[in-house]
């Protein structure tokens, strides 16, 4: 769903930001549309297309994907650190037991 939404945002921004100015230029050249009005409409279309692109990246699915993945990655890192701490504590306990076994074996040998 996120990829579809991202594609629609990009297509909307391109269609408005490039399509409308292109149509204004075409209408001005071939149908006698007023050049000043066409320039004003084209300028506004470029601004609106840019606004759609910026809002789509910041507020839309593209912005949420980056935030959610960062939060998930931080949570995975926290869980991994907890597992590593627990493993180290178990290894410390094993080292202690092995030390006691070594001492007992040395006492038996003597």
Structural class: mainly alpha
> End-to-end distance, in Å?
73 Å
Sheet bearing the most strands, described?
A: none
Which regions have little confidence, pLDDT < 50, spanning 5+ residues?
Answer: none
CA-based gyration radius? 33 Å
How many beta-strand runs?
A: 0
The number of helical elements comes to 3
N-to-C series of helices and strands: HHH
Question: How does the SSE layout of this entry go?
Answer:
Blueprint: H1 2-31, H2 35-58, H3 61-109
General description of the model:
The chain is mainly alpha-helical. It has a domain at 1-59. The chain contains three helices and no strands. It has helices at residues 2-31, 35-58, 61-109.
Features:
single chain; 110 residues; mainly alpha
Short overview:
By secondary structure, the chain is mainly alpha-helical. The chain has helices spanning 2-31, 35-58, 61-109.
